[in-house]
Amino acid sequence: MSGRRRGEKESTVRPAPASGDGGVWYSDDPRDIGWVRENIPCQSACPAGTNIPGYIQAIMEKEYGRAYEINREANVLPGILGRICSRPCEDVCRHAQPGNGETVNICHLKRTASDLKHVGHRITESLYTPSGKQVAIVGAGPAGVAAAHDLSLLGHDVTIFERESDPGGMLRYGIPAFRLPRDVLHVELHNALRLGVELRTGVEVGSGEGQTPLTRLGKDFDAVLLSTGSMAPVTLPLKEGVGKDNPDSIEGVEYGLYFLMEMHRGEKKTVGKRVAVVGAGFTALDCARVAKRLGAEEVTIHIRTAEEYIPVTKDEIFECKREGVRIKGLRSPAQLSVDDGGRLRGIEFVQNRLGGWRENGRRAAIPIEGSEFFEPCDTLLIAIGQRTVNDYLDIKLELDRWGSVKADEGGQTSKKGVFAAGDYVSGPTTIIEAVGNGRRVAAGIDTWLMGRQRRRQVVRIEPVDGPLRERGFDFIERQHMPTAPLAGRNKELTREVETGYDEALAATESKRCYLCNLKYQIDVDNCIYCRACIEVAPKNCIKLVEGVEIREDGTYGELLETSEWDEVGAIWIDNNECIRCGACFMVCPTKCISITRNEFVTQDI
Amino acid sequence: MAEPTHNVIIGNGSAGNGAAITLRERDPDSRITIITMGSLPFYNRYDLPRVFRGCDDWREILVHPLAYYDDNRITLRRNSRVTDVDGRSRSITFAHNEVMHYDQLLVCAGGRGYLPEELSDYYGLMHGFHSFEAAITTRRALPEGGTVVMLGGDMIGLDLARTLIDVGYRVALLANEYTFWPHRIDADERGGFIAALEHMGIEVVDGMRPVAVEEGAAGTPARRVVFDDGGSLDGDVVMPFYGLVPTAEFMLRSGVDIERGLLVDPQLHTTDPHIWAAGDVCQIWSAADNEYRFYYGWTNVRQMGEVAARNVTGTNEPFEGVDDERLHIGKDGHILSPFWEH
Questions:
Q1: Per residue in B196-205, pLDDT tens?
Q2: Is A487 close to B212, i.e. CB distance below 8 A?
Q3: Residue to substitute from B80, B85, B115, B118, interface A, most A β-carbons within 10 A
Q4: B-chain residues near A351 (CB < 8 A)
Q5: Which of A182, A379, A571, B197 could serve as A272's disulfide partner, Cβ 3.0–4.6 Å?
Q6: Are A605 and A455 in contact (CB under 8 A)?
């Protein structure tokens, strides 16, 4: 059995070094690194690797500024992401596992850290000495801004080239202000870029007249980062009929992305009384909610599969419906119908049935032959996806089969010194993925510029005196986000819908977090096998084991459970089942159970 | 000796009970467990209006005598809420953390009253009719000859309205697209049916959109429904009747296909080989209509339960629903719905 040491007795809590900061020690042991990766599901699911239990505990202690700083270590835009994140963390929250209730409102708590921090809160950041290296970043969207922030911290001179008049990319031009207020956006972008980043807006990079060629940036800067996002809409595939190749040429038909961008540039947009939106992402929902606010009487979102499988949060779907938007599933547009004047009069759909799962984790929809039906509408907003555009490149870069630039793990493209990050590389993803990728590529650029890796991730391990939770916390209901009254909501484009937790709601919700960064361990040398901990445990979390598998990479694998006393090598706390209630710790007669807080931190090498 | 097959039925309505007795007849040795969130054994939902005629004893509306479950060796788990079904491990998790294993699962969880999202903030100010207990609570909140404001209507609400008027209450109905749910009414028919409702003694308010429910001011009825134009309507209780939505949330992580309800083939089989569904919780593929559709009403639901149970035990027959969905106006000028037949 390769890579497995059956029966290995991994039972003794490794002692802290004699000297240190209150017993705190730092570990690069694969077992500790693997434990953090596997036992804190929310943090592992976060593309930016946010220390979620860390900031939620700070909120529980009413240390909002500290909570904000913990967020900022991984994600420089907590106030923004606390409002519009796609929340992959909540999908895997241990509190949502069968029998445990509902997920913790992780995202709402992130926003709380931003909203409730002291008005005079000071951001603390450790600056590296100037490196003398210059980096150009093309595109001031979330990936570009996150990379610019990190690169400037690392001592490099950063210049951002942005074609729009203001920074933010999709944050500013794609997301309506009723979801992301512009004052929050302004403050957080300013904080991210104020460490000497030069922002040149209204500058278009390209080979056309009046544009700045990429080759010149290559000569003037030590490194160039392309982070121009996926800023073109995917065209609507129609079977036949008018507008087959260019549906937006029909009066009443627009691409949702352009509809939102033009509105956020200040253009006056109008819609008809009956609006159809085709698409299933955040852009589709935003289009529908904007259409309601622009006076549409009937707004319907048409989706290929079913509501359950669309990649937006349940809260967004709920608010969308509260505002009067309808969602109809299992249909794909087949062709458009126009009146004698060439204006849209409706859509012919084909009925779908659900297919299997696609490679991207989404459900497939299979059209049913002969099932066409007609739905009238006078405005169609198409929001079925976005794609990258490369026509501004005057250098040849290797592309993948989707037309996105190929980049290695450090973000380096096929041309030395030219890096790429965010949706420009991956295709359209989410804001948090763009931020996380921007930061990783910034680290790659730094390594390339300095000729060595300057930082590394280790695990900070800190002894904790006792359980930080009470069993009663496990029965607290999920605290819903307060929202603006429905009356009048559809008349205002900029009034924020979600109004934020107050201190009381934040305190209650924060108690629900299991604090999965706490590691409970039993010191087998002191355990008397009395089974008191097993009897008091509310879950099947304390197990008799022969041993623990050690994988080839040195991390812990599965527990080798046994019910035969003569085979028991250890009594082991399964931290995947453990809800950190502390019952075992309290009942143990020999005090052989210890608790440590385990967190990733970055250290200089 | 091998363990008997454990057939678990989630839902204690007509589909679930139709399935249970069919299973017992076809598989005398199996274990059968019915799980319900409710506190009562199977009772006739169509008898609930009797509460407003003074029925206080739940035994009067039971479909079977209390010994029925024991006699048929059916375990009834009451007050038990299922929070999760895991199709891979064939296990059910309850809200109280218990885990139960099944060999075959029939989901007959039915539907619950839909409340439009825009009114969800006012749920606590409305009265329900979804259970015997809710009906009792509503009756106690109603003064003699008091006014019920019905939002929507639907065939459940209109059935209740007939009784309420008969026993001396006033019914004010805010008519909208749900008023004749689940019947699909053409625009040119609608006026006739609204007139029939008025003929039945229902005070119909048509075309007003409720946006809020408030507590009434001192000296006025207990509730006030506010319209989007600022107008309002007072009543002693406000009852929403916007049709049913499938109770399918606990199946979201089971691995079966879901649109609005559980998607099943004509044999009522879900996409999981060990899970069937019947009743208001499922959308059945209709080759004739080229869509997944719901079938409502006692007759359909009961038949679905029986068909699903027969298929669990080895047959492979399709469900053929009673498709007469027409709403009528009777000789007395009152509306008549096949939905009310049982």
A1: 999 999 999 9
A2: yes
A3: B118
A4: 290-291
A5: A379
A6: yes
